[in-house]
Amino acid sequence: MINQDFIKSQIIGMGTEKFDQLVAFILNKVFGCVCNVNGKGDGGCDFRSFGTKNRYVLFQDANGHPVFSVQATIQETDWQDKAFADAKKSKDNIPNLTGYIFITSRPREQADLLPLQYKISSELGLSATCIGARELSGIIFEKKLFAEFMAVTGLAIGEEIIGQPDAKLKMLYRLFALNQGRSHVRSEIFDTILLSRLSMNAEGLARNKLIEETIKFLGISELKNPEINSRIDSLLHGKIQKIGDKLFLKEETKKELQIANAIYTDELNFFKSGISDIIKSNGGVINIKSAESLALSIAEFYVASQAQKLNRLALSSLLQLPNGQIHTFADFTKDLSAQKIPKASITKVQNEILAFASVNALLKKLVNAVIYASLDHSSNPCSVLMLGQYEWQNIKLITDTTIAIPYLATSMFATTGGRFSDASNTIIKMLKKNNAHFVITGNYINECASHLVEAYAYCDVVNEFSLELQDSKNGFISHYCQMKAKGIADMPNTLPEYIRSISGEAVKNYSDKRYKIKRVMEEIQPVFADLGISFEQILPYDEEKYRKDLETEYSFSLESSGKKRPKHLIRHDLNTLAHIRRDYSEKSQAFILLTWDSLLIKLSKFMAQSGMIITPAEAIDLFQSSEEISEGKLHAIAFEYAMVNDQPRLLAAEFLDHLTAIASQQSPEWKQRNLTRNLLSEFLAKADRASQASSIAGNSSMIDEFLKEKGLLPNNNDNDDQEDE
Taking Cα atoms as reference points, which of 497, 498, 505, 547 lies closest to residue 526? Predict the structure, then answer.
């Protein structure tokens, strides 16, 4: 089984030549291109650059000068002196050098690496990064570079060693994705920004305008629209009111916000006073130009410290911090150095400030905002682990008709809105970039072809009723009318031309409709293939074993919903679900079925062991496909949250504490497997998920209750009297 410990053991055993190859690989893949400083003997160094074939790997500034240098060693003793000496030699010999990276094949402690990093930074004025075997193994594991790592270093490691993620790792990733803490943090941020937008618009805002402004301020995807809409519904029960077609703050809410703003001012002053006392008592000279910026950097450092501890225990990167936006140890050390604190006191001051941060009201709010940014504005390449696989290329994602038609239509023509928006295709684009294997079964190609054939029957009425037909159940008609309403310049002039662009067979006259559909299927299957969605053949299967119980549940769900569905469409769904079950049972193939179909989603609880049935919006949530957040945006969100929210309902740091506690437990394998299975079963058992398309908030509270029953999460009341370890 491959994990960071296994990779680390391979690195520790490397000789100079192998380690040289590994360093070249890491520099190329992770750090970009740099100048290498390879020390000889007791500190002397020569200069050379790594390269492959005839392409030199050399990182340069705009004038062609090297900016970063690297020193790599397997040296066991006097390695700190060697690292510093080579850094100094680099500074003396390389013009315009600003950065230095030290890489060792030995598993050095952070207590040794960090002071060395600080010494190089403070005494030589270089931005320093010091990495040992433990950190290297983490980079290789988290960036899923193991196959390339083996190829580059020539390690002969069989597939039986790579295996699959262990039960604990799968459990932690499912808990991270499905735990209510994630959704609660987001809901609280959304509520705060909604109230803030309304407070800035005394004349009120229409619901769609409020959603638009909130989405814009937060810098998030349109896929969050339904979730924000749900938060507005919740606020209408207490904080806001609707008058006419606009939304307003209630008078009592306005007063609450004024009080919250006053509290924020007091908290900021108290923070400045507290930090000043710590710095002065340790021999520093207080020079706080921006108390807000310093407070945010401390909150960022606090979250980074918590995340580092959690990730170390998990041997993975559960909490992926936004690249370059969260203050790290080096950043925080630099901030403190600016306050003229003696070097010998830096560590003591850091500990005192972190202790202060853990109880300070303002910092607790800022920590919530930073954790929100870390959860919703980072992309975690290891999220595939919750599916029990190391690589996305081992996952098959089946697109049903509700996904396939919009993806085909928007890829060939233009996006419009709703299910035909860019946001609807985000998860497909993101997972394709990760090499996930998208497929469509013959059943669903048949349905797409049927929709296209039936669309031709609308030719005589589409112009007269184009407004009403924007919401047609026929996906192609809906998309065509939406493009027409938006005045898309490059769209086909007529409906027949639109249909013919997808399939010429669909506009021909055939007396046999089934034959016509078959001909259209033959034309659109290659179109899907060109768009990266392969054909998935459903082979014969044991109906008694894989399908019979699903038929009963499908009939019950259909009857209870009051809907009717043609038998052949029911057969298509059941065949696809049975296929997923069979391939998982007989081939260990992992599946995700992407759909907006509420009936299919209700059946997901019966598929928990063999695959997930989720909406694209839920997939975005679970697999963290989000744009990075800028420091300026994080600052704006954090302080608007702090000014409006005087008493956060949730201390988000507790979410990390819970995960850390579970990651540190050494429970038996069978318990971890049971918990891993039950986490997903509990999540998928919520029948009304489709009505909350982009929110998992309503589904995850049961996860926490389940964990509490198992003794893996403490009850809130039990936490009150416990001290942090």
Answer: 505
